């Protein structure tokens, strides 16, 4: 197995988070995978809370929890030293530890020692696991949907989680395939593709979304953007490896400059669509645009609906805001595509 | 510094190589950088030889050599155990060790111990060095030429080494920028981009080809191919990070199937040109096709010259075979491009 796998259910750790923005990983897991969340653990100073019972590691373990998930990103991405004892306590109670922090659990000697002593795993979800493999480009059975973006941070993860949820609701066969640390912690499995050595991106995405039943959908979280000057290589490997049947273009309404990229305007939607279709055809000649997912949080309701209607007319595909309208129109349209 | 740097001159090790195909790294260094080669070292059973004096590590060190370069790729990419003593002897004589083998020198405890004891470096040129950085996309002064391919193994390294050599011959300011292990061993510096974590490809290529004098050319070795189902992510990061002013498309005449890629024909030259120009425009809107480098080793002289003439007419740029015709027409044409 080259995918990272977390055992459920979880004890979700909120640390000293002041709110659920600081604990956005915890919030995401509780929102998208409530069935995997057994309990929360909060430090006395925490103000953030989830709708879950509070438990200690031992209580959670006794109740069946398998993994202690760090549900927040402390400033700087390092683990506060005073939390080390908590993580050791969790391992001693029989829980694995999962973390998406920049600082690796495996680089903290006390945790490594406790892991060896207790037999519990340290799961750094930013670190790719298993043998790296090169892409083959060989076709696989089953269908695949990939989120692509006009920029980073435009809602690709949210869009694919929502599409997956809608598919399940409609009784379709579907699996969410996480490609980033937050997605992996939410789903409990995945491959952190931006941390994969560049020779192996496409190959690892092939492994992440293997052959499946003809009517099964892999809903693959996107990363970066093909038009991004720093990260396009990641996005292209993901596009080629996923052999997407359908792409959903994600965009934030009103964003004009690329995030943190001086001198780079957000490219036009038509350009982003054309570029992804052209490049994606290499490994799947039948790749199609399946819809546009628009983050309209900066717009009023009227503006949002007008913009959505305008884009639907312009591109001839369903246009949604996953939060405002839901993604049902995109999923409904998928049935019209041939396998 | 994020580039790997080898100190010259070298003692080039040919091991037990039967011929210069087995010792192609050694052959490449001696051909392209003869001024860096002080001597060769050959085992008694070696049949391959370079036009260099034979020396022991101690003799080479006494004569001024700084680095012992493994000039061959043993089958399987691992270091024969009987060579470990030779490498230790070389370090004891005051030489660093440079290797492009898959097996890392740094994973062989005896070598690590000897390195610590002697203070000589183990340089695994497949391992990226220094802090990894993300791309900025910011423009840099100076000019850059990048080799791109219709497939892997079509002569990108040879083409760029030849273009760099011709530039120097013509008195131009130019630096060869190596991006793969053989190129790094030949040039003595570079970044192994296919071993860089995918988030950092573009950024590391920016570092490899920094701002320079306005009339200075960085001649950047290409990797993979934008139309390759396994490695296109590497090629795109390289294209974006290099901000190429000029691309040279490399192709092997007559190759119809991509190397090792079942079901993938070699794409048409026009498609490869269009794709690279379109994607490259993101970080350099003035990117141009500067020529085509054709490996015609499978063709007769007549066939080769006819094919070259045909492609020149079709694409309106210089078409060369670096071996058969030399690359002068490409370099001569570069002067007509604006900075």
Q: What is the CATH fold-level name of the largest domain in chain A?
A: Rossmann fold
Shape of chain A: globular
Give the total of domains of chain A: 2
Structural class of chain A: alpha/beta
**Number of alpha- plus pi-helical segments of chain A:** 11
Beta-strand residue percentage of chain A:
15-25%
Spatial sequence of strands, sheet with the most strands of chain A: 8-10-7-11-12-13
Termini separation of chain A comes to 27 Å
Task: List SSEs of chain A in N-to-C order.
Answer: EEHEHEHEHEEHEHEHEHEHEHEH
Oligomer: homodimer
Strand elements of chain A, count: 13
What ranges of chain A have pLDDT less than 50 throughout 5 or more consecutive residues? none
CATH A-level architecture of the largest domain in chain A: 3-Layer(aba) Sandwich
CATH class of the largest domain in chain A: Alpha Beta
Average pLDDT figure of chain A: 95
Main interface by residue count: A-B, 38 and 38 residues
